[in-house]
Design a protein that fits this description.
The structure is a homodimer. Chain A is an alpha/beta fold. In chain A, 38% of the residues lie in helices and 19% in strands. In chain A, the strands form six sheets. A six-stranded parallel beta sheet of chain A has the order 16-17-13-12-18-19, with helices on both faces. Chain A has a five-stranded mixed beta sheet with strand order 20-6-5-21-22, with no helix packed on it. A five-stranded parallel beta sheet of chain A has the order 9-8-7-10-11, sandwiched between helices. In chain A, a hairpin with a 2-residue loop joins strand 21 (510-512) and strand 22. In chain A, helix 2 runs antiparallel to helix 4 (98-121). Chain A starts with 9 loop residues before the first strand and ends with a strand. The model of chain A has no long low-confidence stretch (mean pLDDT 97). The interface between A and B is large, with 85 and 85 residues.
């Protein structure tokens, strides 16, 4: 039996009004509207969801790591149960193939289980203890203990390009639940059906695991009104966002004007430069061309880590690599983009760079490769802008000095990639130093698409890549974003959270008088 | 030989212009101006300091933990060498006694050495390694390694009330240097002489330790112009601030409008409520009255952790405690406040609460105790505001429900204090839960003034106590504020920072495939 859409928001365990403005998804393949009509949340839905989240917050705060792990694992298994519906609907709403969403569902469930393991172990809270010394002079030393705890209700804004893994049940939601925060999701306008299926999986898990009503809400919205009001609502204590630079900045600006400003963790814009060094260009020109093409057209070029810039040593090897990229582009099939807006922006930006698109069905476009010299690149700032879709810009450069100058001029990036032989890399110390300041992740002899979900991953970087270069939205460190520090001075053991009790009943890794271990 | 003031800004190793607007310190004891005339930094001074900091940033980035530790320890020993001058001048400029600055200098040097130990050990960087698995299906697993690294030039805004420990060579500067960031200090207008002495100690240490020019600058300013321009300058990557709510919010607003917004770590405003529970009021009324009085008048009531609110069970015990507080207040000597502005604000706010001040010499005021019922407190929002200076508000309450209602209505705080017997505390679970969300530190049966400097300290809390409840400005975690995360994928060992090299040459604590230890 196929999934039956109710097409209304989720306000805790109840549903939103059927009186809000309606909107539909569109098929990128055909450009046609796809039913059903979804009802935007009303202002009343929004207020109810915030009120419930506030109340739930106090109860979630006391949930043990074990209880939170159960919730996260139940969400994962509920998603798996609904995988067929999820995959089919996501494919319909995005124009991306089913196989992609088989993978994305697995990634999403893997993320949820990673956070389940993390909170079950409990060491993530950064527990620290400095024991008392009543005999210290001139003043006795008190007993001080501290850890990270849940911050409060989090608003999660979904990504257009990852309808499962960076959306309703994605990394922001998983890390916020893991921290102990209720979540109110602002569903992405482009994939409401996928959102409703994922929201159903979460909503059922909340009930099944006995979590409080208001642990999770989801607001549909056909425009920006509800999202703006959500970020401005006093109940919300942090925002997670994945999307465009304009969208992220708009949220940052809204939040900066609140009576109580809150952190916005926005992952926004990145061109992900690839630096091909001379030895690598000489040794592996064909391999690099093929790898680069596969990376910038993966998901039709709609990944935040898409390599949108490739610096290649000028001369024969440059010509060879660019010829290969152009050949591969010409022979490739059309790419249906996620939305008409993304398609229009792609057409406008590629036309401005000199490659008008031919008319195509739905939101489809042709992939294309642009060229510039280093000099042109340095002169023309518009060449540094992200173009979302299947295109990259090949830039020919002269020597290491020129490459370093270019790197110094780049904005903050999620990633940078270096292709080099052992000798190339040994000589690239200066370039690497520059990139360490500019980017969240440096990839060696690989491609930036494909973000491993693990303890050490950094999906971050200086503005405009993200709003906080000290944080990441992928990997276990993502949980820290949704926490506050709390410290207890001379507290009786009975009052302390288990993580800080004298006997370390949870057996977690913690720092005691400067020494780190499981005691 | 007494310290010879040049009374100009420090622009790296050179000095600023003598053409800027001049200003002087004032003696809070007499209210009279105190020489010399200090020259405000010019716009050109500001630009030069930012340029130098940018250049220094690239060199500092590569300094080892050992090298940074040397710098921090040298600053500490240089401060100790100048202690007599520092203490005398700080006392002159603040009206606080010499003994206070003996202690504050020791605290400052202790902080510097704590960060030296921290970076010498090196484990603070949160190094994480996930090793490769080339055989993983469906895709091989790459090698991923990440850590915290310096963010770039930091602007530090000094506190009026801590001319040494939260100013030029204070916690923000120490933690920024420890992270590997150059610092540009915006000196506080009220203690330029103390600032120049501390800046000399740092400036000499920078040269003595062979650190790059531009590692440290200090800008004098007779108004807000230079500070605003500093926070807005593109070279600055983070701001540390300790001061008023209005001042911190003004900086947050400036930074939110930058092309590249940056984090402002502001520690602003807190009334530090004290909750006296019934058993404790019964058992230790006199002790609590004396302790509270000592705490709210310490440093003439000008600590950010001053207890400005005390909730006491209504009835006999309440009357007894308030009588004691009032008696102690009446018998106390006048308190010279730090500046005429602080005095004027104190006079206005205490007059509004019904206690007009008598005329006094310099910036002196009388300490005073105010009273309200819980009902009045809940009705009148102005009673929740911080009054900087030697005063507190005693609020009589009825029962635990009323106390919880009051706690729920409080803004974010640096601290909250609970006085309770074992039985009191056992019954205060709900109150403690509320406070965990609202405050950075909960003190049991003690006083909030006196902030221990250690690994576990949290001098933080939700807005308006600070701008980021996930951070602290005191203790070793303060270093994290001035860092970004950087991640290396499949990097050759030769390229990796020592902290991430396969053999763990520094022997630091790090997480490898989820296990934490010194390998």
């Amino acid at each position: 039996m196929p999934f039956e859409f109710k097409a209304t928001s989720f306000i805790g365990s109840s549903r939103g009004a059927e009186t809000g403005k309606t909107f539909t998804a569109f098929s990128p393949e055909t450009g046609e509207a796809v039913g059903p009509e979804f009802h935007s949340a009303t202002k009343d839905d929004l207020i109810r969801s915030c009120l419930q989240a506030s109340i739930a917050s106090n109860l979630l705060y006391r949930k043990s790591g074990q209880e939170k792990a159960e919730l996260l694992r139940r969400i994962a298994s509920n998603l798996e149960e609904r995988k067929a519906d999820l995959v089919e609907r996501a494919s319909l709403e995005t124009g991306l193939p089913n196989a992609r969403f088989e993978g994305e569902t697995a990634r999403t469930c893997g993320q949820l289980r990673m956070f389940a393991d993390l909170v079950e172990d409990g060491s993530w809270v950064d527990a620290r203890i400095d024991t008392a010394d009543p005999d210290r002079k001139p003043l006795p030393k008190p007993d001080i203990r501290s850890m990270r705890k849940a911050l409060g209700p989090v608003a999660v804004f979904c990504a257009s390009n990852f309808p499962i893994a960076f959306s309703v049940a994605g990394g922001d939601t998983a890390s916020a639940f893991a921290a102990g925060c209720p979540v109110i999701v602002n569903a992405h306008i482009a994939h409401p059906g996928t959102s409703e299926i994922a929201a159903t999986a979460i909503s059922e898990a909340v009930v099944e695991c006995g979590f409080p009503d208001g642990t999770f809400s989801l607001l549909f919205s056909g425009d920006y009104e509800i999202g703006s009001a959500l970020a401005a609502h006093p109940a919300i204590k942090a925002v997670g966002f994945t999307g465009s630079r304009a969208g992220g900045r708009a949220l940052m600006d809204i939040v900066a004007k609140r009576v109580e400003p809150i952190p916005v963790f926005a992952e926004m814009s990145s061109v992900n430069p690839v630096f091909v060094l001379p030895g690598a260009a000489e040794e592996r020109a064909d391999e690099i061309a093929e790898g680069l093409f596969a990376s910038f057209t993966l998901g039709y070029g709609q990944f935040c880590t898409k390599p949108g810039l490739a610096f290649i040593p000028g001369g024969e090897r440059y010509a060879h690599i660019v010829d290969s990229l152009e050949g591969l582009s010409r022979r490739s099939t059309k790419s249906p983009l996620l939305t008409s807006g993304i398609r229009d922006s792609f057409i406008a930006k590629t036309a401005a760079r000199g490659a008008p698109q031919t008319v195509a069905e739905g939101f489809a476009v042709d992939s294309c490769v642009f060229e510039a010299t280093a000099e042109e690149f340095l002169r023309n700032r518009s060449l540094r802008e992200e173009v979302f879709g299947p295109t990259t810009l090949a830039v020919s450069y002269g020597d290491a000095d020129e490459l370093e100058k270019i790197a110094e001029g780049l904005e903050g990036q999620l990633t940078a990639t270096i292709h080099g032989t052992e000798e190339d890399v040994a000589e690239a110390g200066e370039l690497i130093s520059i990139l360490e300041k500019k980017v969240g992740r440096i990839v060696f002899n690989g491609y930036p698409t494909g973000v491993e979900v693990c303890h050490s991953m950094v999906h971050g970087g200086p503005y405009p890549a993200t709003s906080f270069p000290g944080t990441t939205s992928v990997g276990t460190r993502a949980i820290e974003r949704f926490t506050k520090l709390v410290c207890y001075q001379d507290a009786p053991d009975s009052v302390l959270p288990d993580e800080l009790k004298q006997g370390n009943p949870l057996g977690i890794v913690r720092m005691t008088d400067g020494e780190t271990g499981r005691d």
